[in-house]
Specification:
Elements (H helix, E strand, L loop, with lengths): L2 H11 L5 H12 L7 H13 L4 E5 L5 H9 L4 E6 L2 H13 L7 E5 L2 H4 L8 E6 L6 H11 E10 L15 H15 L3 E6 L5 E6 L3
Parallel strand pairs: 1-2, 1-4, 2-3, 4-5
Antiparallel strand pairs: 5-7, 6-7
Helix pairs in contact: 2-5, 3-4
């Protein structure tokens, strides 16, 4: 095993998850949902804590793994989470309750994100977390950057898309979409971006305050 692979493995395995997040992860796998890696959750929680996030939008609720991690870091934040699957959101709501997160801190919206996001207020959110239909990642990031306040951050899970984004010979639509997001944000003067290789990749995009 190379040093880089060993470091990556260590970074992912060192994280200790709460009992509720562990339960959410198990339910995700049982329902066929791919949850974010524990290291991605932990890094997202650190960003939420460091920015003092008060308002968070999550695109893709799943059964609450990423939402629970974000609220672990932002202990007073309001989370708005969007997903097409009502059944998954019902599981998530039960897990938020089990984690003793007040009901008025979580707003679950059932519907297509591309229908919901245009109706949300721009420049109003501290963090926008993107982990939904990978075919629409470009549109989700565009909406996320519109919704994030100046100085706010868009987090994109699975940004390395199963290790394919770094391989220029991989040109399927999903891989190309993630690669486009990564390269265009890196070149943009309106944001500061960083790509972390933990898990399946976490792209962090912060809007520069004018």
């Amino acid at each position: 095993m190379s040093d880089k692979v060993s470091n990556w493995k260590f970074a992912n395995e060192i994280i200790s998850e709460s009992e509720v997040i562990t339960k959410a992860r198990q339910q995700s796998l049982e329902l066929g949902i791919e949850p974010i890696a524990a290291a991605v959750g932990a890094q997202s929680a650190v960003i939420a804590a460091a920015t003092g996030a008060a308002n968070i939008v999550e695109i893709g609720t799943g059964v609450g793994v990423s939402g629970l991690w974000l609220l672990t870091g932002a202990t007073q934040a309001m989370l708005t989470s969007i997903d097409t699957e009502l059944d998954h959101q019902q599981h998530a709501r039960a897990l938020f309750t089990e984690a003793r997160i007040a009901a008025n801190r979580v707003r679950l919206i059932t519907g297509r994100a591309l229908d919901v996001l245009p109706r949300m207020n721009e420049n109003s959110y501290d963090i926008v977390f993107v982990d939904a239909d990978p075919q629409s990642v470009i549109e989700y990031v565009e909406h996320g950057l519109r919704l994030a306040r100046p100085g706010g951050t868009v987090l994109v899970a699975h940004a390395l898309w199963k290790g394919r984004v770094s391989d220029p010979t991989q040109r399927d639509d999903i891989t190309t979409g993630y690669r486009t997001v990564v390269t265009e944000t890196a070149a943009s003067g309106a944001v500061i971006s960083a790509l972390s290789p933990i898990g399946d990749g976490l792209l962090q995009i912060t809007k520069i305050a004018e």
